[in-house]
Amino acid sequence: MMRVNEASWDRAVRMLAGIVLLFVAWDGLVSGVPGIVSAVAGVVALSTGIVGWCPAYTAAGLSTRRAATAGHCPHCESLNER
């Protein structure tokens, strides 16, 4: 199962970057191979921002999300155990 490994700010930046990259590709500001790369990068950035999980972070063992503090609430403790 995927765990969220992106903080809220990271997700917001990814979604904004994804929207900008898709707009640049869709509007034709860049064309050809750079346009295709922009579109693909936009889809990846937007989708990882929406989902909150980055496979590259998982592969590298990274996370920008803070761990919930122990004892905060039973729900947070169960999330940390997964």
How are the SSEs placed, and which strands pair?
Elements: H1 8-27, H2 32-51, H3 55-60, H4 74-81
Helix pairs in contact: 1-2
Shape: elongated
Low-confidence stretches: none
How many strands, what sense, and barrel or not for the largest sheet? none
**Number of DSSP helical runs:** 4
C-alpha end-to-end distance: 9 Å
Tell me the total number of β-strands.
0
How much strand? Answer: under 5%
Domains (count): 1
**Which whole number gives the mean pLDDT?**
87
Order of helices and strands: HHHH
Radius of gyration: 16 Å
Sheet/helix structural class = mainly alpha
What level of helicity do the residues show?
A: 55-70%
Description:
The protein is about 65% helix and about 0% strand. The chain is mostly helical and about 80 residues long. The radius of gyration is 16 Å and the shape is elongated. The chain has helices at about 10-25, 30-50, 55-60, 75-80. The protein has one domain (about 10-80).
Brief write-up:
The chain is an all-alpha fold and 82 residues long. It has one domain. Helices cover 66% and strands 0% of the residues.
Q: What key phrases describe this protein's structure?
A:
single chain; 82 residues; mainly alpha; 4 helices
